[in-house]
Amino acid sequence: MNRPILHPRGYLPLVAVAILSAMIGAPERAPRVLLLGDSITLGVRPGVAANQTFGGQLETMIKARGLDASIINVGIGGERTDQALARLSEVLKANRPDIVLLMYGTNDSYVDFGRKTSRLAIDQYRKNYGELIERIEQTGAKTVLMTPPRWADDAPPNGLGENPNLRLEPFVELVRAIARERKRPLVDHYAVWSTARQNGVELMKWTTDGCHPNPDGHRAIAEEILPNLQPLLTATIPGKG
Asked: 47 lies in which domain range?
Protein backbone atom coordinates (compact mmCIF):
# COMPACT_ATOMS: atom_id res chain seq x y z
CA MET A 1 0.00 0.00 0.00
CA ASN A 2 1.39 3.35 -1.03
CA ARG A 3 1.52 5.95 1.70
CA PRO A 4 0.94 9.67 0.98
CA ILE A 5 4.10 11.71 0.92
CA LEU A 6 3.97 14.36 3.62
CA HIS A 7 6.00 17.55 3.56
CA PRO A 8 8.59 17.60 6.38
CA ARG A 9 7.16 18.87 9.67
CA GLY A 10 3.64 18.77 8.22
CA TYR A 11 3.91 21.98 6.21
CA LEU A 12 2.12 22.25 2.88
CA PRO A 13 4.39 22.23 -0.14
CA LEU A 14 5.12 25.69 -1.51
CA VAL A 15 3.22 24.88 -4.70
CA ALA A 16 0.09 24.12 -2.69
CA VAL A 17 0.46 27.36 -0.75
CA ALA A 18 0.74 29.31 -3.99
CA ILE A 19 -2.37 27.61 -5.40
CA LEU A 20 -4.38 28.31 -2.24
CA SER A 21 -3.26 31.95 -2.22
CA ALA A 22 -4.32 32.37 -5.83
CA MET A 23 -7.72 30.80 -5.10
CA ILE A 24 -8.35 32.95 -2.05
CA GLY A 25 -6.95 36.14 -3.56
CA ALA A 26 -4.91 38.82 -1.88
CA PRO A 27 -6.91 40.98 0.56
CA GLU A 28 -7.83 44.40 -0.81
CA ARG A 29 -6.45 47.35 1.11
CA ALA A 30 -8.32 50.51 2.02
CA PRO A 31 -8.22 53.22 -0.66
CA ARG A 32 -5.40 55.71 -0.18
CA VAL A 33 -6.48 59.36 -0.28
CA LEU A 34 -3.57 61.76 -0.75
CA LEU A 35 -3.92 65.40 0.35
CA LEU A 36 -1.58 67.50 -1.80
CA GLY A 37 -1.28 71.19 -1.03
CA ASP A 38 0.31 73.95 1.02
CA SER A 39 0.10 74.98 4.70
CA ILE A 40 -3.70 75.02 4.58
CA THR A 41 -3.58 71.32 3.71
CA LEU A 42 -0.78 70.57 6.17
CA GLY A 43 -2.95 72.25 8.76
CA VAL A 44 -0.90 71.68 11.91
CA ARG A 45 0.14 74.94 13.58
CA PRO A 46 -0.24 76.59 17.01
CA GLY A 47 -3.85 75.98 18.00
CA VAL A 48 -4.43 73.20 15.47
CA ALA A 49 -3.47 69.60 16.26
CA ALA A 50 -3.14 66.89 13.60
CA ASN A 51 -6.56 65.39 14.39
CA GLN A 52 -8.13 68.87 14.06
CA THR A 53 -6.90 69.48 10.50
CA PHE A 54 -9.36 68.86 7.71
CA GLY A 55 -7.48 65.65 6.90
CA GLY A 56 -7.78 64.42 10.48
CA GLN A 57 -11.43 65.40 10.76
CA LEU A 58 -12.19 63.90 7.36
CA GLU A 59 -10.78 60.56 8.44
CA THR A 60 -13.01 60.61 11.54
CA MET A 61 -16.08 61.48 9.44
CA ILE A 62 -15.34 58.70 6.96
CA LYS A 63 -15.03 56.08 9.70
CA ALA A 64 -18.25 57.32 11.34
CA ARG A 65 -20.05 56.45 8.08
CA GLY A 66 -18.70 52.93 8.10
CA LEU A 67 -16.26 53.58 5.26
CA ASP A 68 -12.58 52.76 5.18
CA ALA A 69 -9.82 54.95 3.78
CA SER A 70 -6.24 55.86 4.50
CA ILE A 71 -5.79 59.65 4.57
CA ILE A 72 -2.22 60.67 3.71
CA ASN A 73 -1.39 64.34 4.24
CA VAL A 74 1.67 65.54 2.32
CA GLY A 75 0.96 69.28 2.50
CA ILE A 76 3.98 71.59 2.77
CA GLY A 77 3.84 75.15 4.09
CA GLY A 78 4.42 77.86 1.48
CA GLU A 79 4.27 75.47 -1.47
CA ARG A 80 3.26 76.57 -4.99
CA THR A 81 2.30 74.45 -7.99
CA ASP A 82 5.80 74.58 -9.48
CA GLN A 83 7.27 73.24 -6.24
CA ALA A 84 4.58 70.54 -6.09
CA LEU A 85 5.59 69.38 -9.56
CA ALA A 86 9.22 69.12 -8.47
CA ARG A 87 8.39 66.55 -5.77
CA LEU A 88 5.37 64.89 -7.36
CA SER A 89 7.06 61.77 -8.73
CA GLU A 90 8.59 60.93 -5.37
CA VAL A 91 5.32 61.56 -3.54
CA LEU A 92 3.30 59.37 -5.90
CA LYS A 93 5.87 56.56 -5.82
CA ALA A 94 6.09 56.59 -2.03
CA ASN A 95 2.33 56.70 -1.37
CA ARG A 96 0.64 55.04 -4.38
CA PRO A 97 -2.65 56.92 -3.92
CA ASP A 98 -6.02 55.95 -5.37
CA ILE A 99 -7.44 59.46 -5.00
CA VAL A 100 -5.60 62.80 -4.83
CA LEU A 101 -7.20 65.95 -3.42
CA LEU A 102 -5.41 68.90 -4.98
CA MET A 103 -5.50 72.41 -3.46
CA TYR A 104 -3.16 75.23 -4.54
CA GLY A 105 -3.44 78.93 -5.27
CA THR A 106 -3.00 80.81 -2.02
CA ASN A 107 0.78 80.99 -2.37
CA ASP A 108 0.87 81.06 -6.17
CA SER A 109 -1.30 84.20 -6.25
CA TYR A 110 0.25 86.06 -3.32
CA VAL A 111 2.14 89.33 -3.86
CA ASP A 112 5.15 89.66 -1.56
CA PHE A 113 6.39 92.93 -0.11
CA GLY A 114 8.61 94.71 -2.58
CA ARG A 115 6.93 92.99 -5.53
CA LYS A 116 4.14 94.12 -7.84
CA THR A 117 2.95 90.79 -9.21
CA SER A 118 1.91 87.40 -7.90
CA ARG A 119 4.59 84.84 -7.10
CA LEU A 120 3.51 82.92 -10.20
CA ALA A 121 1.88 84.31 -13.34
CA ILE A 122 -1.59 82.90 -13.83
CA ASP A 123 -0.63 81.34 -17.18
CA GLN A 124 2.16 79.42 -15.47
CA TYR A 125 -0.26 78.37 -12.74
CA ARG A 126 -2.64 77.00 -15.39
CA LYS A 127 0.16 75.03 -17.03
CA ASN A 128 1.42 73.66 -13.71
CA TYR A 129 -2.06 72.71 -12.55
CA GLY A 130 -2.79 70.83 -15.74
CA GLU A 131 0.50 68.97 -15.53
CA LEU A 132 -0.19 67.99 -11.92
CA ILE A 133 -3.52 66.47 -12.95
CA GLU A 134 -2.04 64.63 -15.92
CA ARG A 135 0.88 63.16 -14.03
CA ILE A 136 -1.32 62.07 -11.13
CA GLU A 137 -3.83 60.41 -13.43
CA GLN A 138 -1.11 58.61 -15.39
CA THR A 139 -0.66 56.46 -12.28
CA GLY A 140 -4.34 55.47 -12.34
CA ALA A 141 -5.29 57.72 -9.42
CA LYS A 142 -8.36 59.95 -9.55
CA THR A 143 -8.08 63.69 -8.94
CA VAL A 144 -10.44 65.91 -6.99
CA LEU A 145 -9.80 69.62 -7.51
CA MET A 146 -10.29 72.09 -4.67
CA THR A 147 -10.27 75.87 -4.52
CA PRO A 148 -8.53 77.32 -1.44
CA PRO A 149 -10.69 79.00 1.20
CA ARG A 150 -11.27 82.73 1.14
CA TRP A 151 -9.08 85.07 3.20
CA ALA A 152 -10.85 87.00 5.98
CA ASP A 153 -11.74 90.62 5.26
CA ASP A 154 -9.44 91.76 8.05
CA ALA A 155 -6.53 89.50 7.06
CA PRO A 156 -3.11 91.18 6.80
CA PRO A 157 -2.69 92.90 3.42
CA ASN A 158 -0.34 91.66 0.73
CA GLY A 159 2.77 93.50 -0.47
CA LEU A 160 0.66 96.00 -2.38
CA GLY A 161 -1.57 96.78 0.59
CA GLU A 162 -4.48 94.79 -0.89
CA ASN A 163 -6.65 92.13 0.64
CA PRO A 164 -5.09 88.92 -0.76
CA ASN A 165 -8.46 87.81 -2.13
CA LEU A 166 -8.06 90.38 -4.91
CA ARG A 167 -5.19 88.35 -6.39
CA LEU A 168 -6.53 84.96 -5.36
CA GLU A 169 -9.92 85.21 -7.08
CA PRO A 170 -8.61 84.89 -10.70
CA PHE A 171 -6.72 81.74 -9.65
CA VAL A 172 -9.91 80.38 -8.08
CA GLU A 173 -11.82 81.05 -11.30
CA LEU A 174 -9.14 79.20 -13.21
CA VAL A 175 -9.48 76.10 -11.01
CA ARG A 176 -13.23 76.17 -11.64
CA ALA A 177 -12.62 76.45 -15.37
CA ILE A 178 -10.14 73.55 -15.35
CA ALA A 179 -12.66 71.40 -13.48
CA ARG A 180 -15.32 72.17 -16.10
CA GLU A 181 -12.98 71.62 -19.04
CA ARG A 182 -11.59 68.34 -17.75
CA LYS A 183 -14.86 67.21 -16.15
CA ARG A 184 -13.22 66.61 -12.81
CA PRO A 185 -14.88 66.79 -9.37
CA LEU A 186 -14.56 70.25 -7.76
CA VAL A 187 -14.81 71.13 -4.08
CA ASP A 188 -15.25 74.90 -4.10
CA HIS A 189 -14.14 76.01 -0.64
CA TYR A 190 -13.78 79.62 -1.79
CA ALA A 191 -17.47 79.71 -2.71
CA VAL A 192 -18.50 78.06 0.57
CA TRP A 193 -16.49 80.50 2.64
CA SER A 194 -17.80 83.44 0.58
CA THR A 195 -21.38 82.30 1.20
CA ALA A 196 -20.68 81.92 4.92
CA ARG A 197 -19.32 85.46 4.95
CA GLN A 198 -22.46 86.75 3.26
CA ASN A 199 -24.51 84.93 5.89
CA GLY A 200 -22.74 86.75 8.71
CA VAL A 201 -19.81 84.49 9.54
CA GLU A 202 -16.67 86.44 10.42
CA LEU A 203 -14.04 84.43 8.59
CA MET A 204 -11.35 85.52 11.03
CA LYS A 205 -13.17 83.24 13.50
CA TRP A 206 -12.57 80.30 11.14
CA THR A 207 -8.84 81.01 10.98
CA THR A 208 -5.82 81.54 13.19
CA ASP A 209 -4.62 84.62 11.30
CA GLY A 210 -7.10 85.47 8.55
CA CYS A 211 -5.68 82.78 6.24
CA HIS A 212 -4.89 79.48 7.96
CA PRO A 213 -7.95 77.59 9.22
CA ASN A 214 -8.45 76.90 12.91
CA PRO A 215 -10.31 73.72 13.95
CA ASP A 216 -13.67 75.29 13.03
CA GLY A 217 -12.38 76.30 9.61
CA HIS A 218 -10.92 72.85 9.04
CA ARG A 219 -14.27 71.32 10.00
CA ALA A 220 -15.99 73.46 7.35
CA ILE A 221 -13.47 72.23 4.77
CA ALA A 222 -13.85 68.55 5.77
CA GLU A 223 -17.65 68.78 5.69
CA GLU A 224 -17.53 70.10 2.14
CA ILE A 225 -15.09 67.43 0.96
CA LEU A 226 -16.96 64.44 2.40
CA PRO A 227 -19.98 64.30 0.03
CA ASN A 228 -17.65 64.70 -2.94
CA LEU A 229 -15.24 62.02 -1.75
CA GLN A 230 -17.75 59.44 -0.53
CA PRO A 231 -18.87 58.25 -4.01
CA LEU A 232 -15.25 57.63 -4.96
CA LEU A 233 -14.66 55.62 -1.79
CA THR A 234 -17.74 53.47 -2.24
CA ALA A 235 -16.81 52.73 -5.86
CA THR A 236 -14.75 49.62 -6.51
CA ILE A 237 -11.08 50.59 -6.38
CA PRO A 238 -8.66 47.76 -7.17
CA GLY A 239 -5.97 47.27 -4.54
CA LYS A 240 -2.49 48.26 -5.61
CA GLY A 241 -0.56 46.68 -2.81
From this structure: 30-234
